[in-house]
Amino acid sequence: MEILEIAKNVEEEIIEHRRNLHKIPELGLELPQTSKYIMDTLDEYGIEYEFYEDISAVVGLIKGGHEGKTLGIRADMDGLPINEETGLPYSSTNENMHACGHDGHAAILLGTAKILKSMEKDLHGNIKLLFQPGEEYPGGAEPMIKRGALENPKVDGVIGLHEGVIDPTVPKGSIGISYGPLMASMDRFAIEIIGRGGHGAYPQDTIDSVTTACEIVTALNDIVSREVKATEPAVLSVCRIQGGFNQNILPDKVELEGTVRATNEDVRRFIARRIEEIAVNIAKAKGAKAKVEYNYKYPATINNKEFTEFFYESAKKILPKEKILVLDKPLMGGEDMSFFLNEVPGTYFFLSNPKLDENPFAHHTSQFDIEESLLHIGTALFVQTAIDFLNEGGES
């Protein structure tokens, strides 16, 4: 029986998992109901696992009947602090929402786990099931790695996916792959501008933190447009300006906060350095002070070329070639799958399954939804890749 047909046979169970998880979205690294659901299901399937209780992570292990390599398969599980407005009969039962599709990711991996468990005697190696918390914030991949999720047995390759309509150029029912950078790094910066407040009618007696902030914002926007090569993907956005409390009072302080995205580590660190230099020196020129905080969050998500070539060959056993799109431009969104990919060779791909064919509701919105009938394709791709990687000597 072909793998796609095997996955189709567990489709109803995958959809049931997705709906059950959709009802109980939880945030960050505290996912007690979600992790319990995952563990209860793994118990039902007879799959052993470790539970990192402090971060709500679950790492399942399927031991093959023969010695060999180990493939890690990753699915994030957390939701977002959004009130759901889909009207679905299985809508969220709390104030959060699975508005990014992580319920589907976990369901796809549970379906994968069931199928691979049934094949374990024939597998030449092992499968690590990486159920990850906190992808939205504050990041669960890195703490999982620090706790040994990729060890005992050591993971030789890793794969993951994102459902929905992450890249609108990927048609519904297709997947998008990349042989290199797929998504950008994601960093945060915050700047506190300290001046001397006073009456708005007498600015000469103040050190104006508002106009200083304005000049800093303008100068920061020049970093990408004037100091980074046009061929290098990079974004700097000031997303919050906060200061003042009355129409005729100049405040002592103004706060700026924003995000930086890049696919090149050197560019990423160059922008971080320039933010501090520009903020501090403009503030100094205005008689003010600037305190800069830069937080390196998620590195760029960069696929391993050889592993992705291997995955492409596996994917062709599930989908026709015309439904496997090679993406030549990275997206500027961030993903902490990047931490796993920095540790071992692997690939991350997009499964396009928006609910609506035209003008689908975007991720991170209160009406986001997915086409459940395509979830089994993700499971089939995971299972086929696992079989090929372990039994046919995929690149490690």
Kindly report how far apart the N and C termini lie: 27 Å
Average predicted local confidence, pLDDT: 97
Number of helices: 10
Uncertain regions spanning at least 5 consecutive residues: none
Instruction: Give the helix/strand class.
Output: alpha/beta
Approximately how much helix is present in the residues?
A: 25-40%
Q: Largest beta sheet: what is the strand line-up?
A: 1-2-4-3-5-16-6-15
**Biggest pleated sheet:** 8 strands, mixed
Beta strand count: 16
Radius of gyration: 23 Å
Describe the structure.
- This protein has about 400 residues and is of the alpha/beta class.
- It has helices at about 5-10, 10-20, 30-45, 100-120, 140-145, 210-225, 265-285, 305-315, 335-345, 375-390, and strands at about 50, 55-65, 65-75, 125-130, 155-165, 175, 180-185, 185-195, 200, 235-245, 250, 255-260, 290-300, 300, 325, 345-350.
- Strand 1 and strand 2 form a beta hairpin.
- Helix 4 (about 100-120) crosses helix 10 and helix 8 crosses helix 10 (about 375-390).
- It is elongated.
- The model has no long low-confidence stretch (mean pLDDT about 95).
What would you say about this model in short?
This protein is α/β, with parallel strands linked by helices and 396 residues long.
